[in-house]
Amino acid sequence: MESIGTFLPLIAMMPFVGALFPGLMIQAGRNVCAMTAAVPTILAIIMLTICAPAVLDGEVLQFSLPWLPSLGLNVNFFLDGLGLLFAGLILGIGILIILYARFYLSRQDPMGQFYTYLLLFQGAMVGIVLSDNILLLLIFWELTSLSSFLLIGYWKHLPEGRQGARMALTVTGMGGLAMIAGMLILGNIVGSYDLTVILENKDAIQASPLYLPALLLILVGCFAKSAQFPFHFWLPHAMAAPTPVSAYLHSATMVKAGLFLMARMWPVLAGTPEWFYIVATTGLITMVLGAVIALFKDDLKALLAFSTVSHLGLITMLLGFGTPLAAVAAVFHIINHATFKAALFMTAGIVDHEAHTRDIKRLGGLRHLMPITFLIAMLAALSMAGIPLLNGFLSKEMMLEEAAHTVWAGSPWLVPALATLGALFSVAYSFRYIVHVFLGDVRQDYPSKPHDPDFGMWAAPGFLVLLVVLIGVLPAVAEPLVRTTAGAVVGGELPYFSLKIWHGLTPALFMSAIAVAGGALVLSIHSVLAPRWDAAPRPEAKQIFDAIARTATVFSRWLTDMLHNGSLSRFAAIFAVAVIAAGLFAWTGGEAGPPVREPLEIAAVPAIAWALLVLCSLGMLVFHRNRLLVLILMGVVGLIVSLAFIYFSAPDLALTQISVEVVTIILLLLALNFLPKVSPKESSPGRRLRDGVVAGAGGLAVAGLTYAILLGDFAQESISAFHLENSYSGGGGTNVVNVILVDFRGYDTFGEIIVLGIAALVIYALSQSVLGGAGGRWLASGELDSKKAGDRHPLMMVIASRVMMPIALMAGVYIFLRGHNEPGGGFIAGLVVAIALVMQYMASGFAWAVARQRVPYHTTIALGVMAACFTGVGAWFAGRPFLTSDFGYVTIPPLEKFELATAMAFDIGVFLCVIGAVMLALDSLSSMARRAGETVNQLPMDIDPARRSVANATDKMAVAAGKEA
Amino acid sequence: MELLAEILITASLVISGIFGFVGSYGLLKLPDPMTRLHAPTKATTLGVGGVLIASMLYFIVLGDGLSFHELLITLFLFLTAPITANFIAKTQLHRNVPMDDLPKTGTGRPWATYESDEARAEAEANRNP
Q1: Is residue A99 in a domain?
Q2: By CB distance 3.0 to 4.6 Å, which of A9, A378, A880, A910 could disulfide with A875?
Q3: In a domain, A951, yes or no
Q4: Could you give the CA distance from residue A278 to residue B95 in angstroms, rounded to a whole number?
């Protein structure tokens, strides 16, 4: 059945693809928008229908596609009975909700957004129920949390909506995190993340010592999602969402995701006492608690929300019993609950829509005004109460039957009694929904005159109620689906059962009778009970949640401020201390290798250079407030370091260091132009002492570590030998440094040039935003330096830099070309050419030079990255992985034979990126200079003897233009 | 021949050493920035020049043959030294010397460093109507 299996990813993808369109099609009108949303859902339903017969015959459809196989994450889907049921529910009710929402949403609501969110959510849900890989399932799981956040907060203008959305995201999201941990443990026990494999390893999982932690973590996720005690509090607050969302997410689908997962994991997790006591007890508590609270809620949707909590508890309890028949009952109740509860939510929405209130105290007597709505609501509510001939009755009977046989901690009556109590309150609030809203006298004080809505609005609940009655009267129609699904949950043979209305005079029937009678009785004294309930002290979940959230926020803020209050010196100090501590830990805990090398003799010249280095560093410490002096000392340090590289035979590093040094010092000098020339004293002596101690410790630690490494050997064999051996044979170059950069570690370099480009863009963006703000105004105010020198572009400098330009470019090209075999390469060549350009800019001014520069620097950076990228992509055409290099030897007479390597094209990318980045940084500084009042010259030099006779007019214009600029 | 070359090389090195020392000493001892500027100029031209001559001789007689590196270095030194000096002088004038302390130019216009862009444009326009 491979061919049908390929439908599975399509079913999961369809809503995601469809989500793109409603937002666009809203331009064409609301009907078109709703239809656009319906199309992908209908297509998915059709595909599911094609798959259905095979699944009902007992087949399991599968589809698999490797995604990140090394992590065990694959796009595996499978469809069995359970998946079919849930996918059918999600898509089927989805299409009804799309219809209903079309009429529910008002003109002010952005409908396109709504349908987009809804389809995103639908896709995520379908993804959960079809996933055959638990990691994939987790991804979809988190997607439902995110998309439901968007849906609950759909009415962004309502604070309740935003708070409810946040609470739902927090609770379900944290549950999701716990679940990730649980699932990873499970995957580790089994050794595979594929659900079908995990489901076959019951014994291994239950025997593992990690079974309990995994179970607890997964259950936390399920309970949070399915609003089980003590996580039940988020569901009522999520009711701030529009009613279609409540009907869809909070009755039929999302809250059932937790149940789905418990059912899915049932074969491997259930059957142990831990499972029974945790799951069944939680379900029981939730069922009773939810039912009791629901009775006393005056808001229609709150009533329904807590009734949902209660029914979810019921299903959880059934799953917790761990017997196959209980699983059958759970599956059946999932179907029934989805039908009647979605219908109830929609009728609540209709009432709200027509009467403009959901407060039960302000309603009553609607039976006469809204007969159709009344019929639908009554049938659905009676089903919820468990009245015979409706589907709720059947599954509730089965639940009571199972409860009657369940022994809890040696007590045979506790579970049946509490289950009956829950059922009793369930009957009470269901009756209340009918009696207090629809029955009674017609009132005159509704906020708006209610009447039955258009067909479009009641069609969806009407259809669902039709199902309610159909299954209620003829349970056999649902039997094949229930049988297949329950078979998939149990993962084996089912015991005999039959869905029928009359089972004889069973204990369940008596319990049911007690519940109905008791429920009616409780409702009759509701007016007496309600004030007492309201007066009774009880914990308010929202306040507790808010208090916890507030505390967490205060704590996080305190921690962040402690570590990271914006003071760079504090940040650096924390970093340094942490690194030193980690280093000390490693040093004391580990074992350093013995020194195996003798230190070199210290010759006179290196000793002098070293002394100079130390002196300059000390000088920087002493004179650090004089910024210009520090910069000069820094230059000296840089030059000595380059010399040191030459001394230790690292010509590549020396070349790089010296060119980087030149560029850095020039850029820093330019930047210094806009900064105070002296750093003010800002820290207290104590703080300076602290910083000095930290810095000294860090310096000494690094020096010591370096010394130890220089004298000793590495713990592992270094990779250098491999590089040296393979540089020529593998990369086609004898300059190992360059071959490492462009070939062995080409991917790193690719990332680095992108980072370099981004850094340059960020400098540009920052300087632009500074110029737009207070900094720009300060520069423009002329406080910087009003005394301007004349003859800014002296003849000698201009001419010399022009002469140097071709020579420097030539040197750049030379260094670039020889880079593969001799010291050099794209990076150094880029710097050399950049320096040649910077010289022109220094000589004749930035604006003059940039006017003669055709390609913008942003483009240069982009071209560089693209050149590197396309070189890498080129390897694909040769059937090799990204960035695999190749080289060959070419002879073009009369030249000698020479080498061409793809790495060279890559190196061009590096080259361009470096030039673009340096020049863009220069550009940013220059735009600051212009803001500070520097005029723009149109001519290369200020005093040009050759120009005397012709220059006057042009000069005048130039000055005028400069003033404007 | 070799002995002669060695003597010549040694002499150049010693001369360059002396000039280098004198240049550095002058940089330290001369009274004001403008005079001090002269000291390193001597050091580069004569001091570094001596080393370059020594190096060339060494490669011609004792090494691999004629080497052009020294000529290039000379070229770059000749290019950069005057420009550096020019800029240092301009900076010194701009920052520390009032315009009136300098001798008159005799043209009615100030020295270039003191003349703003607008003034220069106007003056040149007036001179060549």
Answers
A1: no
A2: A880
A3: yes
A4: 83
d(CA A582, CA A577): 8
In a domain, A645, yes or no: no
Report how far apart, in Å, the C-alpha atoms of A899 and of each of A425, A742, A827 are: 87, 15, 20
Coil, strand, or helix at residue B57? helix
pLDDT at A573 over 60: yes
Contact (CB<8Å) A797/B112: no
CA distance A956 to A889: 58
Chain A interface, best mutation among B83, B84, B87, B96, by max A CB count within 10 A? B83
Domain assignment of residue A653, yes or no: no
The Cα–Cα gap between A910 and A960 comes to 41
Task: Check pLDDT > 90 for residue A940.
Answer: no
**Interchain CB contact of B72 with A (< 8 Å):** no
Q: For residues A545 and A646, what is the distance between their CA atoms, to the nearest angstrom?
A: 65
DSSP-based three-state secondary structure for A61: strand
In tens, the pLDDT along A289-345 reads 999 988 888 888 889 989 999 999 999 999 998 888 888 889 899 989 988 988 998
Nearest to B79 among A787, A790, A800 (CB): A800
Residues of chain A in contact with residue B124, where contact means CB-CB under 8 angstroms, are 948, 951-952, 955
Residue type, A213: P
Alpha-carbon distance of A915 to A825, in angstroms, equals 13
Tokens 């927090």 belong to: A170
Q: Which residues in chain A have Cβ-Cβ distances shorter than 8 Å to B82?
A: 796
Q: Which secondary-structure segment (H or E) carries A66?
A: strand A61-68
**Residue A386 identity:** G
Instruction: Please tell me which of the candidates B120, B125, B128 has its beta carbon nearest to residue A790.
Output: B120
Chain B environment of A942 (Cβ under 8 Å): 112, 117, 120
d(CA B53, CA B56): 5
**Tens of pLDDT along A473-492?**
888 888 888 888 888 888 77
Q: Which domain holds residue A439?
A: 282-520
Start-to-end CA span in chain A (Å): 73
**pTM of the entire structure?**
0.69
B63 CB within 8 Å of a chain A CB: no
CB-based contact (8 Å) between B68 and chain A? no
Which residue among B87, B113, B124 sits closest to A790, beta carbon to beta carbon?
B113
Interface confidence, given as ipTM, is 0.88
Which of A490, A520, A550 lies at the terminal end of a domain, its last residue? A520
Residue of chain B minimizing CA distance to A934: B117
Q: Which residues of B touch A943 (CB under 8 A)?
A: 112, 120
Total of domains in chain A: 2
